[in-house]
């Protein structure tokens, strides 16, 4: 089973793009605090959301917004511009919730996603 649950804050604004076939995807980073760390360590993860999730996150979340993410880990390999093969790991969103308070909600009353 490949399942991961994260609760953290976006490290940058989501970047929403569309595939040539029109499928939406959003990429962003999330910072997750280690609650029992003596030196207040933080882990950083690259995240990708697809379809309606990507559009909602892109519209209503911004840097600093708190999200609860359920998803899976996905690895990929690519060759960078220097010709070096790089392996990366990202979290692919399957479900999510906005976890911030009212101050985190950049929406109008008429435009709420809930």
Summarize the structure.
The chain is mainly beta and 114 residues long. Helices cover 9% and strands 51% of the residues. It has a single domain (4-102), classed as Nucleic acid-binding proteins (OB fold (Dihydrolipoamide Acetyltransferase, E2P), Beta Barrel), CATH 2.40.50.
Return the CATH topology. OB fold (Dihydrolipoamide Acetyltransferase, E2P)
Q: How many H/I helices?
A: 1
CATH-derived architecture: Beta Barrel
The percent range for strand residues is over 45%
- Report low-confidence residues grouped into runs of 5 or more: 104-114
The amount of helix comes to under 10%
SSE pattern, N- to C-terminal:
EEEEHEE
Helix and strand topology:
Layout (H helix, E strand, L loop, with lengths): L3 E7 L4 E4 L5 E10 L8 E9 H10 L5 E14 L5 E14 L16
Parallel strand pairs: 4-6
Antiparallel strand pairs: 1-3, 1-5, 2-3, 3-4, 5-6
Describe the structure.
The protein is mainly beta. It has one domain: OB fold (Dihydrolipoamide Acetyltransferase, E2P), CATH 2.40.50.140. Helix content is 9%, strand content 51%. The chain has one helix and six strands. Strands 1-3-4-6-5 form a five-stranded mixed beta barrel. The two termini are 30 Å apart.
